[in-house]
Amino acid sequence: MREEQGLTQGELVTRCHLIGWDISRGTLAKIEAQVRRITDDEVPLIAKALKVNIEELYS
Questions:
Q1: Are 57 and 48 in contact (CB under 8 A)?
Q2: What is the pLDDT of residues 12-54, one digit of tens each?
């Protein structure tokens, strides 16, 4: 979804910081590479940062 929106990892991390989620670009890269799982608490935050509904993350 990040790539579909034309966002770099850095740009998405900046959005995350603006909504109060302190995440590094490295952590985001690990999530995207499925090396690190995203927690239940983080799902709403990533949806908000991507400006999508939570349901869209699971489609």
A1: no
A2: 999 999 999 999 999 999 999 999 999 999 999 999 999 999 9
What residues make up the domain containing 24? 1-36
Cα distance between residue 36 and residue 18, in whole Å = 22
Domain-embedded: residue 11? yes
Identify whether 59 is part of a domain: no
Grouping H, G, I as helix, E, B as strand and the rest as coil, residue 5 is coil
CA-based nearest residue to 49, from 6, 11, 16:
16
The answer to whether the pTM exceeds 0.70 is: yes
Torsion angle of C-alpha atoms 28, 13, 54, 36, degrees rounded to 10: 10
* Among 36, 14, 41, residue whose Cα is nearest residue 25: 14
